[in-house]
Amino acid sequence: MDFQPDPGLESFRQEVRQFLQTKVPADLKGLQRCTRSPREQIMRWQKILDAQGWGAPYWAKEHGGTGWSVPQILVFDDECTAAGAPTQDGFVQKMLGPVLNAFATPEQKAEHMPAIFSGERLWCQGFSEPGAGSDLASLRTRAELVKSGDGDHYVVNGQKIWTSYAHHADWIFLLVRTNPEVKKQAGISFLLVDMKSPGVTVRPIRSIDDAHHLNETFFDNVRVPVKNLIGAEGAGWGITKFLLNNEHATTADLPELNRYMRELRQFATKLRAGGERLIDRPEFALKLARLDAELQAIGMLVQRVAKLDQEHNPASHVLGSMLKIRATELQQRITETQIEALGDYGAVCYPHPHEPASDQAYPLQDLARGIANDMFLRRASTIYGGTSEVQRGIIAKMQFQL
Ligand SMILES: Cc1cc2nc3c(=O)[nH]c(=O)nc-3n(C[C@H](O)[C@H](O)[C@H](O)COP(=O)(O)OP(=O)(O)OC[C@H]3O[C@@H](n4cnc5c(N)ncnc54)[C@H](O)[C@@H]3O)c2cc1C
């Protein structure tokens, strides 16, 4: 793979940068810390992107996307983060959207795509259950088909857990068991469910960063029309593998890693310890250089994995697992080093970015706001999207097969 800078990419970067400078409304800027912007901001930003023709930046042209190459997508994500633009709905852009493009009927696309592009409908992912996380195929949420005069429908009963942003979502894509009699993978189906359906209850789980991202989601005799089944009944496991295999390169969250590193460099040049700038202390400068070198290596691996993904090369699975482990561990180390750099002010002082500013002044307050939340939240990055232990198992098996 050629890692040399591409001059064409530089003009694309300038185009994106200029768009962001003029089109990100001032009141939406800079609130991106802690994984996701509030619901209204995501919706407003999606409308702006859609008006520019960038409503689906990661999809092929034939599906209404931008048709950007992998390096262009990486530039777009990086520039959006650097500009402090609001986040998009990753569940729909990176997970559900590609599934609908590949498996949905024309009627299903006609029902859901317009609201996805215009940002009027946000989604969440209902996969994990209390007894089914790493071993997802053991899921027990049951969907029973009922034939009736006023339209065939499924009746869904069960519980999902760790449903990120279910409290902001209009719809959920849900894995359900439609047949308990067959091999566990063969009895799973993929359903789309309106969160306003009677019988859906969302209860918050507060996470270690003291914020509300996570939920338990309960389904109590929820009636779901058969037209909301994606693919055939029992085909849900194949669709899930397609969905999970699409996100290898994105699990690294490279734009966020780049942002953490930019911030850490600023801390190192602006903060002092014992009268000396941190960057002038050899042990801190060495630590910074090591983190930077690892980040450069991850940047190259991201490009490689994304290219393999685009070529549908199965080597992306094992490299994607390696990338997931190394990138999420680096997220944890850089955010911990940020807290360390802030010294006595460290973890406890900085208010959450979505809460009103306090009167007390902290060093580099604008830059460091919400920093402890980020550090705590990153503890979970080695769990979600497949734990590090599970990724190591995948790597071990793949090496054995080579
Ligand atoms: C912040 C966050 C957001 C999330 N968002 C969502 C979401 O939006 N939607 C959703 O559906 N899910 C979501 N999840 C759930 C996530 O996918 C699961 O937490 C993850 O798959 C692990 O499953 P588990 O929590 O049940 O742990 P378990 O699978 O019970 O694992 C417990 C421990 O056992 C280890 N272990 C399990 N199996 C193996 C094995 N085969 N080999 C070695 N070690 C093993 C694990 O590594 C872990 O240390 C989220 C999780 C977090 C933390």
TrEMBL record:
<protein>
    <submittedName>
        <fullName>Acyl-CoA dehydrogenase</fullName>
    </submittedName>
</protein>
<comment type="similarity">
    <text>Belongs to the acyl-CoA dehydrogenase family.</text>
</comment>
<dbReference type="InterPro" id="IPR009100">
    <property type="entry name" value="AcylCoA_DH/oxidase_NM_dom_sf"/>
</dbReference>
<dbReference type="InterPro" id="IPR006091">
    <property type="entry name" value="Acyl-CoA_Oxase/DH_mid-dom"/>
</dbReference>
<keyword id="KW-0560">Oxidoreductase</keyword>
<dbReference type="InterPro" id="IPR013786">
    <property type="entry name" value="AcylCoA_DH/ox_N"/>
</dbReference>
<dbReference type="InterPro" id="IPR046373">
    <property type="entry name" value="Acyl-CoA_Oxase/DH_mid-dom_sf"/>
</dbReference>
<feature type="domain" description="Acyl-CoA dehydrogenase/oxidase N-terminal">
    <location>
        <begin position="10"/>
        <end position="120"/>
    </location>
</feature>
<dbReference type="InterPro" id="IPR036250">
    <property type="entry name" value="AcylCo_DH-like_C"/>
</dbReference>
<keyword id="KW-0285">Flavoprotein</keyword>
<dbReference type="InterPro" id="IPR037069">
    <property type="entry name" value="AcylCoA_DH/ox_N_sf"/>
</dbReference>
<feature type="domain" description="Acyl-CoA oxidase/dehydrogenase middle">
    <location>
        <begin position="124"/>
        <end position="222"/>
    </location>
</feature>
<dbReference type="GO" id="GO:0005886">
    <property type="term" value="C:plasma membrane"/>
</dbReference>
<feature type="domain" description="Acyl-CoA dehydrogenase/oxidase C-terminal">
    <location>
        <begin position="234"/>
        <end position="397"/>
    </location>
</feature>
<dbReference type="Pfam" id="PF00441">
    <property type="entry name" value="Acyl-CoA_dh_1"/>
</dbReference>
<dbReference type="GO" id="GO:0050660">
    <property type="term" value="F:flavin adenine dinucleotide binding"/>
</dbReference>
<dbReference type="InterPro" id="IPR009075">
    <property type="entry name" value="AcylCo_DH/oxidase_C"/>
</dbReference>
<keyword id="KW-0274">FAD</keyword>
<dbReference type="GO" id="GO:0016627">
    <property type="term" value="F:oxidoreductase activity, acting on the CH-CH group of donors"/>
</dbReference>
<dbReference type="Pfam" id="PF02770">
    <property type="entry name" value="Acyl-CoA_dh_M"/>
</dbReference>
<dbReference type="Pfam" id="PF02771">
    <property type="entry name" value="Acyl-CoA_dh_N"/>
</dbReference>
<dbReference type="InterPro" id="IPR052161">
    <property type="entry name" value="Mycobact_Acyl-CoA_DH"/>
</dbReference>
